[in-house]
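Hi C.,

You asked whether I'd gotten around to modeling the 153-residue construct. I have! Everything is below, sequence then structure, no commentary in between.
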Amino acid sequence: MNFHIRPATLDDLDLLMEFRDLSVHERHPDADMANAVTTESRGWIADHMRDGTFLAYFAVTEAGEIAATAGLWLVDWLPGMSSTTRMRGYIFNVYTRMPFRRMGLATLLTEHCLAVCRERGVQVVALNASELGRAVYEKLGFESSGTEMRLSL
């Protein structure tokens, strides 16, 4: 089966939210929390699409069916030892619908996001991988940093 990649627009917001909802519910057993995440994500995604810092892409079948999606957040970041540029990429919302899994779509979309980053001079790209996705990202060269620390207030 052949696929092409098309960028998402604000007109696709409902479809992006559908994919986000599927992804969040699949990864998090707490349905109330998953619903809250999806609800709160809508405004963030719309705002960042408007200002050009969130880009999203769909893998589309020849028949026009949306099979998978991935998002790329371009983050203004303080230059440091890992990157002297002000921009970092953060890939998220990578999700493939069940009938299209194991066809390389997560790889295809992630590679597309990486190409966009290269075109824009982004030197560092990060993501959080699910257990299902970890092998995909490792094959693309992503490594676990193990340096992030968090405090929830």
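If it helps when you're writing up: The CA atoms of residues 17 and 41 lie 8 Å apart.

Thanks,
B.
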